[in-house]
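Ligand: copper (II) ion. Inputs:
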Amino acid sequence: MALSYSDKVTSQLLAFVNAFFYRPGADPDVVAATTALRNLDPCGDVLSYMSAVQSNIEHASEVKVPILFAGGEKDALYPQPAAVQAQADLFSNAPTETATFPATGHALLQHKTEQQVQERLSQWLDDHGFGPPERTRAPQIPQVHVVDLAPLNGSGVHGKAILIQRGGQLRVIIIARGLEPGQPHAQHIHGLDGDTNAVCPSPDAADQIAGLPQEASDPDRFISLEEGQPSYGPVLLPLTPFPDAAPVGIVTYHETFPVSGDLSDLSDEVVVLHGLTLDGGYAASVPVACGQID
Ligand SMILES: [Cu+2]
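Predicted complex:
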C-alpha cells in the first residue's frame, strides 16, 4: 500500500504548505482535512515541490541551451526584477536573458499587457532561429498529372506517364509498350522557356531544320531529337536511370526526383521517350513517344 499523504509530510514541508496555501491562523483541522484531500499534481504531489526545487537548483549549471526569464513587475509572489535575475544567475553555463513587464502580475498572459508579453516571447523565439510556426505554411496538396504517350515516327509506342508532385518531390511512373526489346530507352521531361507551352512535334517537324525543303534537309523523313526541339524544347529533367525495354517491348519505370524552379509547374511541359532501330542501326535519341502534361 502506498504511503499516505500524512506519512510523507515532514514538519518542514507542512510549514511550507501552510504558508503557501493558508492564511495565518487557519483552523488546523481544516488544514489537516484539506491537505489530506489534496490531489496529486502531474509532477507528483505538492509536497515534493521543495525537494524538486532543491534538485533543480543543483542541476541548473548543467543546462547549456538559451533561456529567457520573464517576470511581471507587480508579481506579488516573486518580486521583480530581482527574482528573474536570481533565476538567470543559477544557470551559469547557459546564455540567458531577462525581461520584466511593467504593470503585469504573476500570470504573465492574464494581464492587459498580454500582447506585449507575446511579442517579446515571439521575438526571442525568432532571434533563436525557431522561425514562424509550421502551421502558417501552405499545406502540401499533391498534384497528379496523367499523361497519354502517343507514338512519334511511326514507332507504335503507346503508354502512360503518371507524375505526382508534392512539395519539392516528383514521383514519375511510366508504363509503355511497343519499344525496342532489350534496348535502353532515354526518357525526359522537355520544356520551353517561360510561359510557352511545349507540345509534341507534328509529322512536318521532320523538315524544320534550317527551313530547307524536307527532301533536302531530312531525307530520312524522321523527326530527330533536334527537329523536335522547337516543339518540345530542351531536356529539363532526364528520367534516369533509363530503362531497358523487356523482351516483349514493355517498359515499367518508377523513380522519385527532387524538383524546383521550372519544374515546380509541370503544366507546360511534355514527356518524351526515345530509341528506335532505323536503317543504320539503333538510334537511341530518336523520339518514339510523346505526351503533353496538362
Ligand atoms: Cu527527350
